[in-house]
Amino acid sequence: STPILGVNSAPKFSVGFYLTYQHNPLVLRDMDGKIVDGGEIVKHHLSADLLFALALTKWWDIGMALPIIINQQGDGFPGEGSPSAGAMGDLRLYLKFRLFESDSKVFALAFVPYLTFPLGGKMDQFAGSKSVTFVPKLAASFSFDRAGFALNLGYRFVAKEAFDRIPNITFDDEILAGAGVWIWAVPEKFQIIAEA
């Protein structure tokens, strides 16, 4: 995802709201890459993130994100039924350190590490991880008068975990990459963001 609620002055408090949709985020495929029958474990996933950020200084922000899963649909695991329709996801706590900003303020580079805590994973197996995870991430943003875009690259450290419901499946670390664009619907007050 893009840097959490970027701010340019301190102290400043920001609130945000994201809607996220994923198609087939958890599936089983055969050796040819085709989804097996009954393998769309989670086919549709719709969630909302409530975001809160506080700029302590011009170069340092802290933030929190609370995901709420609005709807999930899929085959689920054999004999266990479909994924739950609503649940809370894993709480995320952010820090954002601005490493560089151009004199024109068009380009900025930030280090954005965050921790996730398994609130969702404790309540529903499809809602989050079973353990604390750590994600160090670099984010580059390009800001103009009414719009901008960002790129980011990170690495997710997670406790290695064998998946007992499906043989030969293991959850482990992963590389994360993303891009996003934003538009100021109301300058400095209301921002519309889209990301992938």
Describe this structure as you would to a colleague.
By secondary structure, the chain is mainly beta. It has 1 helix and 14 strands, in the order βββββββαβββββββ. It has one helix at 119-123, and strands at 12-26, 42-57, 60-73, 87-88, 91-101, 107-111, 114-117, 133-135, 137-143, 147-156, 161-162, 170-171, 174-186, 190-195. The longest helix is centred in the middle third of the chain and has 5 residues, at 119-123. The termini are close together. Mean pLDDT is 86; it is low at 2-7.
Structural class: mainly beta
Distance between the first and last residues' Cα? 7 Å
Report the mean per-residue pLDDT as an integer.
Answer: 86
Rg value: 18 Å
- Biggest sheet architecture: 12 strands, antiparallel
Helix content: under 10%
- List low-confidence stretches: 2-7
Number of helices: 1
Number of strands: 14
Order of helices and strands: EEEEEEEHEEEEEEE
Tell me the strand percentage band.
over 45%
Gross geometry: elongated
Question: What descriptors fit this protein?
Answer:
twelve-stranded antiparallel β-sheet; 196 residues; disordered N terminus; 3% helix; two-stranded antiparallel sheet; mainly beta
Task: Give the topology.
Layout: E1 12-26, E2 42-57, E3 60-73, E4 87-88, E5 91-101, E6 107-111, E7 114-117, H1 119-123, E8 133-135, E9 137-143, E10 147-156, E11 161-162, E12 170-171, E13 174-186, E14 190-195
Antiparallel strand pairs: 1-2, 2-3, 3-4, 3-5, 5-6, 5-7, 6-9, 7-8, 9-10, 10-13, 11-12, 13-14
